[in-house]
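User: quick one
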Amino acid sequence: MSDSQSTDFDPVAPNTGEDFEPVDVFDDSDDFDLRPGADSCYKCSTCDTNCPVAEVDDDFPGPKFQGPEQWRLKRRDDDHSVDDSVMDCSNCMRCDNACPSGVNLSQMHNTARGEYVSEELSKLSVEYVRNRLLANYRKSAWLASKVPRLANAAANFGPARWLGEKLLGVTGEREFPDFATETFTEWWAAQGGAAGSKERAREARERRGEPLDADKRVAYFHGCYAEYNTPEVAKALVRVYEHFGYEIVVPEQGCSGTPMFANGMLDDARRDAELNVSSFADLVDEGYDAIASCTSCSMAIRQEYPELFDIDGIDDVAANTFESVEYLRIHEDLEGELADADVGDDLAAEFAYHAPCHARNQGLDRQAVELFGDLDGVGVEDVGDSCSGISGTYGWKAEKYETSMKIGDEMFDHMEAADGETGMTECPTCAMQMEHGTGYDVRHPLELLEAAVVA
Amino acid sequence: MAIDSDVLVIGGGLAGLTSALAAARAGADTRLVSYKQSTLRHASGLVDVLGYTPDGDGPLVDPFDAIPDLPEAHPYRTVGTEMVREALALFDDAVPHYRGSHTDANALVPTHGGTVKPTARYPVGASAGVASDDRDALLVGFEALADFDAPQAAAHLDAAGVPFDVRGATIRFPGDLRADAKITRYAKLLDADSRVPVDGRDQSVRAALAERVRAELDGEERVGFPAILGDDDAAGVREALADALGAAVFEVPMGPPSLPGLRLEDALFDALDSAGASIETGNPVVDYDGGDRIERVSVEKNGARIPYAADQYVLATGGLVGKGVESDRDAVYEPIFDCHVAHAGDRYDWFEDDAFGDHAFPQFGVATDDSLRPEEADGSTEFPNLRAAGSVLGGYDFAAEKSGGGVSLATGYAAGRAAAEETR
Ligand SMILES: Cc1cc2nc3c(=O)[nH]c(=O)nc-3n(C[C@H](O)[C@H](O)[C@H](O)COP(=O)(O)OP(=O)(O)OC[C@H]3O[C@@H](n4cnc5c(N)ncnc54)[C@H](O)[C@@H]3O)c2cc1C
Ligand code: SF4
Ligand code: SF4
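Assistant: Done. Structure below.
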């Protein structure tokens, strides 16, 4: 990667401390030697049969081309430039999950996209500026959260949406997500932060008859969405974990980088990755495990960081990062607890569950259905293995909107055929797409878990 | 703590899926964990039981008849003919879109290369194409799909002496897809009956396709297409085309990636789901804890190791292709439990110089006792609570015998059922 992108737009990560000094470890994407991966490809095309974009978009040459084939071309010919079709890949990472030969396709795509953006895409183009804005969602969200009501009104003001489409290529078809009037970290501070959590966790252990000094400590990576848009998910996580006697800390953190990988903004991603790793590495060292409530965030930390960056401590952090419900399944008797539980109020419902692609890669695609299978008062029905089609920022781009909706069609149909009229998923942007395509209200499994075990 | 079940099946190919299905239906709390997608996606979707003897005699008319004469180490001999029949019965019940259960005789199904393959079970979509049927056939290929050359396949079939007239024609798929469009692209268009541009106006893709084929049809009573006719609604696509053409429509199984294989995989996962098993894919099992018995195994998720405990385990991780058996320059080994894999000490004895010679490597795999428990070199049991199934087993050469699907089904079924019985 070159430094050329650091001049015209300089996002400031809101939580970055004054003294934070990012270290450039990889300053040239050509340092990645992916040849062994390319050589393992025996061209079976299994990856291609899994690509949701290739399924609906005739112009997309598919993951096999984006990955091993393009990689070979580049190795042979120094002048070969990355094909612009790599920008049509949504970074769903399904191809990664498919390859029987273990080719690291998404790492190849992320690297190729980074190179394309730094070398082929004009920094003055509308596409670049738009992508950079979308990728650095956290920055706008941070700003908007300062004046949430105004931001909500302005963002969805018709003429503004029209302008957004005309000027920036952000689709006018979608409604912007609402900003919460109180961010999660504001709420967390009001609860007494780590000290308050320690207190409540001890009380819970006492009530549960567990040793008061049990080693139950987790560091929470909430990500941008739970911070600014859906703090109820983060609050549910806090209540559930404290119920099981865990002390929670919420360290300083930036964006997970997912939208940046998907837009080829590797410098931006590295900046936030370094911040995140540096704040979680110390905690992991002290014996904390890291947990995330967003499956794209846990995916980024577990897989994309170690694949793309060489940051001190990243392997330790990756090895000790878990999706939040998965972590409880490993360490607590969730099934037992749920067997005695039931839920009342508005969460007693039939849910149409969609497994996010990034949950699939972590082997979590069946978790919610399995977990809530026997819970009284609720039904959770899997709506099939199609991709929702939004893939983070992808479906927000005017030129991708139609592809995004074509991919999502299958999921919408399955949701409508399912019994419930409430959706469920772990991924905030999948939730956005589910809502957009069906009008359903969408919840996170943690919210249901909270209703079942804490209430 | 660990994630618990009675029976844990490792591997999500035909063997693992059948194992888990048999165990779950026998009442065990069953979980299947699988790393990547299985070889089903490359396979034709046909389930071969035994097409040729290990000596190359065949095609065999009745595969069951030939089982007792197989070498002693063959997995079919381990489980016995009755188990093969029971496994097929389970399959027939779980995958209703398959045919072939009406007879013990192998069906002869034309393949995309124009050969005729002896197989025991085939998708209903292929059934109008069987070679014992004497209706004349037209094979239709698409310009952009180089894997299926219809005129050439037809000529091959003719040369093979099939009892009907067969012709091939190559047409353009309506809508002018890119030359290397993915097979899922064709399937999705046909599933949704999307509108595609034809001569400047939008037309339904099914109707447009039928129109182009009708122009080639010369009284043939059946028409064969490469296996791309829909995914979710394959039956609907075939029916619509058959109606429009006034002829029976069938699919010719294709090489990888294979839609019939994909549909079979979906059907088996659905059956497993209905049987109440838990399913998890995306991460490999890398290690185990335990001394004599396996206490638990670890699933690796990018460095994090997630413990899974069970009473009984089934190893169905596939062969050299599925990565259940690995090799380096010095040895051939089974990577999770380090089960013994017999192979010559000198790697130059693993294969013959002739590419089509009598190689040792296709038969590499673990050897087991009568209950499918892997054995060490001295014949003792590796672990009392571990069984192996499918192409991780040694002692047979599925490609030469045309027995891949059948061995996976039969040993998967036997291992799953035995595992469930022990948890009682
Ligand atoms: C190109 C090709 C064409 C074929 N055509 C036919 C045909 O026409 N008819 C026929 O009957 N048979 C055919 N076969 C053979 C048939 O597909 C196989 O014999 C059979 O499906 C093997 O099934 P399996 O379950 O033993 O292994 P596989 O299908 O190889 O499945 C192994 C599974 O285990 C998983 N796994 C591996 N390691 C681990 C681990 N450490 N942890 C967790 N999971 C793991 C893999 O990801 C995979 O999902 C064909 C095979 C190939 C390769
Ligand atoms: S699935 Fe893997 S081996 Fe097959 S074509 Fe894709 S990258 Fe190559
Ligand atoms: S990441 Fe998703 S969209 Fe991109 S090539 Fe792979 S499967 Fe296709």
